[in-house]
Design a protein that fits this description.
393 residues, alpha/beta, Rossmann fold, Nucleotidyltransferase, domain 5, 2 domains, 15 helices, 17 strands, 22% strand
């Protein structure tokens, strides 16, 4: 099979890199996804390979990666409908190459995963443990693409032994003139978006739900303990616990206590005991697992189910947005989630008031405390301070 293809600079970046791992960083319209898809198609044509294209969820795969793959294949005149298995999301070339579109929120898929080439699109949606599991099952090149809005402490930013390439709209030769004008107008209309899409610079997430400040520590004598929040996890998602404090100046102080996968109830209890958490401390838990809440309570902890009403997610977010949030620098998973927790975008590209699902485990735990302890009604019930042997939590 021979095809003629007009490539973008991202194609050349990957082709010329001698590193196993390549990071392609760029905002929307930089052409990185298009160029990566082209490169993968060419690799599949040249020799038989198992090529995996991975995102967090099936809807995001269908909306972007599968759609782009099919469009490029049609443009090249090599798409064959009979080669596409929509149920398994696999496209098979005549030479035996398989393109498999994988969602990481399916733990069974990851356990059986094997690939010659891996593309992890919107890699900032994926946690480091999931990346590790994917990488050790990949024999060849790994491509990580994402927007420059991730936390400076994110595993992508701290990774070594990789090539990093940054692209902007200027690297996309297929961008219409009207789109170029719209992006360049951002210089005066929205300097923050211009930094991302115009210059490809790392910056705070424009769609971020919470604004927060990173601190080294705080004066415990000036704060009151509010409560713990707990979000259940196991194999795919971590069990996440946060500790929340407040002061008299409308500020919250939040610390990551636990963020770990594969924990059964005894493990969770052991961790809580190790941190000095006893029955005097309220632990607000996800009410979707009442049996787990009851089991933790019977093990001697003051575990309580969160009361969720209509639109509880939006309401809980609005409660927390009324506070100035401070996060300990040592709470790296919490910082990563705070940076990445953002409002979703609809099919027309408009930002909604609904948060994206994915990297939100500590965010959910924090919201549980907000719902039960930080509403105006809850705060009128009185305040108290707790201390256990000088240990913060």
């Amino acid at each position: 099979m021979q095809v003629n293809i007009s490539t973008t600079i991202s194609f050349e970046h990957i082709q010329e890199s001698n590193q196993r791992v390549v990071q392609c960083i760029g905002g929307t319209r930089s052409g990185k996804s298009y160029g990566i898809t082209q490169w993968l198609i060419v690799q599949g044509i040249e020799s038989k390979k198992d090529i995996s294209i991975v995102r967090k969820t099936i809807p995001s795969l269908k909306r972007t990666n599968i759609k782009d793959f099919k469009e490029i294949m049609l443009e090249l005149g090599i798409w064959k409908e009979d080669n596409w298995n929509s149920t398994e999301r696999v496209y098979r070339y005549e030479n035996g190459t398989n393109f498999t579109f994988v969602n990481t929120d399916d733990a069974d898929k990851l356990r059986g995963f094997k690939s010659d080439i891996l593309w992890l699109d919107e890699a900032s949606e994926i946690d480091e443990q999931s990346y590790f599991q994917l990488s050790i099952r990949t024999s060849g090149k790994i491509i990580l693409s994402y927007n420059p809005t991730v936390s400076p402490y994110h595993w992508l930013r701290t990774m070594t032994d990789c090539d990093r390439f940054v692209t902007t709209y200027k690297d996309n030769p297929f961008l219409p003139a009207e789109m170029i004008k719209s992006i360049e107008d951002l210089q005066s209309k929205n300097p923050k978006l211009w930094s991302i899409y115009g210059k490809g610079e790392f910056t705070a997430n424009d769609k971020a739900i919470y604004q927060f400040r990173i601190i080294e520590d705080w004066d415990e004598t000036q704060t009151q303990f509010v409560g713990f929040g707990l979000d259940w996890g196991y194999s795919q998602d971590p069990t996440a616990v946060v500790a929340v404090y407040k002061d008299n100046n409308n500020q919250l102080y939040v610390e990551e206590v636990l963020y770990e996968r594969g924990l059964v109830m005894k493990d969770i209890a052991d961790r809580l005991n190790r941190f000095g958490i006893d029955k005097s401390y309220e632990i607000w838990c996800d009410s979707s697992e009442p049996r787990s809440v009851e089991e933790l309570y019977r093990m001697g902890f003051n575990a309580k189910s969160v009361k969720k009403g209509p639109d509880s997610i939006k309401f809980g977010i609005s409660v927390l947005q009324n506070w100035k949030i401070n996060v300990l620098r040592s709470s790296q998973n919490l910082i990563n989630e705070m940076y990445g927790y953002q409002y979703s975008t609809d099919k027309h590209g408009y930002t909604t008031d609904v948060p994206e699902e994915g990297l939100d485990h500590l965010m959910d735990a924090l919201r549980y405390v907000g719902l039960m302890k930080l509403t105006q009604t809850a705060q009128k019930k009185g305040t108290y301070a707790l201390s256990v042997g000088g240990v913060r939590y």
